[in-house]
Design goal:
Blueprint (H helix, E strand, L loop, with lengths): L2 H5 L1 E5 L6 E7 L3 E8 L6 E7 L2 E4 L11
Antiparallel strand pairs: 1-2, 3-4, 4-5
Length: 67
């Protein structure tokens, strides 16, 4: 792998604490509804990624069921 090829890879950073996760991405990688787990802050976040742009998906809070 030459120097130019290594520049198109980046570590996916946690949107909560900003630390590196265990996921390495290429510039052409796209993720949809991806459950990202951060080993540092121990949180799992649902994300979309396109061209290294991370967007967090807000999940609706659980509603209490009425009977």
């Amino acid at each position: 792998m030459n120097h130019n090829e290594s520049e198109q890879f980046k570590w996916l950073l946690c949107p909560v604490c900003g630390s590196k996760t265990r996921i390495k991405m290429r510039s052409d990688t796209e993720l949809r509804n991806f459950p990202l787990f951060c080993p540092k802050c121990k949180q799992e976040i649902l994300i979309n990624v396109t061209q290294f742009n991370i967007s967090v998906i807000k999940e609706p809070d659980a509603q209490t069921q009425s009977r």
